[in-house]
Design goal:
By secondary structure, the chain is of the alpha/beta class. It folds into 2 domains: about 1-220 and about 400-415, Rossmann fold, CATH 3.40.50; about 240-395, 3-Layer(aba) Sandwich (Rossmann fold). The protein is built from 18 helices and 13 strands. Strand 1 (about 10-15), helix 2 and strand 2 form a beta-alpha-beta unit. The longest helix is centred in the middle third of the chain and has 24 residues, at about 170-190. The chain is globular, with a radius of gyration of 22 Å. The relative contact order is 0.12.
Length: about 425
Amino acid sequence: MEREKSKRQHILFLTPQLPYPPEQGTAIRNFNLIRQVSRHFGVSLLSFADRSPQPQHLATLQQFCQNIWTVPVPSWPLKKRLRLLLSSADPDLAHRLRSSTFSSVLRRILKDHPFDALQIEGLEMAPYGLEAQSWPEVSSPPLIFDAHNAEYVLQRRAFTASLSTVKRWPAAIYSLVQWHRIRRFERLVCQQAWAVLAVSQLDAQALKKLLPALRPLLVPNGVDTSLYHPGLKDSLPLEHPALVFTGKMDFRPNCEAAQWFIKAVWPHIQAQIPKVHLYIVGKNPPPQLQRFQSPQIHITGYVKDILPYFGGADVYIVPLLVGGGTRLKVLEAMAAALPIVSTQLGIEGIPLQNEKHALIAQDAPSFARKVIYLLKNPRAAQSLGQAARAFVQKRYTWEAVTLPLLKLYTSLPHKTRGHKSDDL
């Protein structure tokens, strides 16, 4: 085929979960990177997946990948986690997806197939990239590390946040230990990689603090503006006025954000707008979040289609207090032309302007006031949403954000072992 002839390099992606369906952050990024890269280069995929991946999911990925290999996700029981916490100097992230099967499959693939780069998606996949460099019988291709977050920064923030409450001190101790272990491990991975990708300028700066000679390549998260757009149908329908927050709710920053909003912000809003409804949308909400379920607070758990919630939202909220990276959820809401109220941390990594593209609040009373303002001023809310969509259309489509990555691939060395990022 003509398309095959045009491919100049062949990239092997390692992903922590099957990139399709793209229902949460990691999968969304991985799927869209693979889709964009496959238009210009050869792509193969080795991924963790459920024991029996859905044939239709694999069929979709086969449209973009020349080869797909999957390995079952290893178990990560609490007993094993505690044992490694005490016996290993490496962080949890380095052990969470350790699998001898995955290592064996990767070794065989690298022996049997020539690749121009090995791209590891996220720090938890990094052990396999480092391991591949040590196999004597394998000519390991240059290692590209896609840092979805500056992970040591997340743990440092989690440590600081947990210190403020006595009952959270055990969590603070855990985060303190992980912070220092991750910092050391993250530095090692950056040092061994031929290139490092960062999702925001702030993350790039944080990674440079680990390794001053490092020059991370900025490849932000993007958004599919044809999928998220104004006029999405409220097909459920939601009860109005409706506030919506989306995300994987077993992810600690999302869960803590939802709880903070319900406890600290929600009462102020409800006092002014008694009929308001709140929708917390995302898989695996833990019991401490589910207990807030009520006639006006809807904890949905997993939903097959999230688009109706974007279509039905009157205001999209981002009450994050801990986190890092570039928020896919924010880009999705902006693309859907939703008015957004966020903490400063919630929009971190996206250079939008306060009061032009979103409203930024610094504390609970301010957050409540800004939500109330938008609910009572629909014209202002509409104007804010329209400006937000124009912003992402210009800067954050997947086609735009992947251009630097495509250029990077053209500079790959031929059949050499790992160079360092500062050689770029």
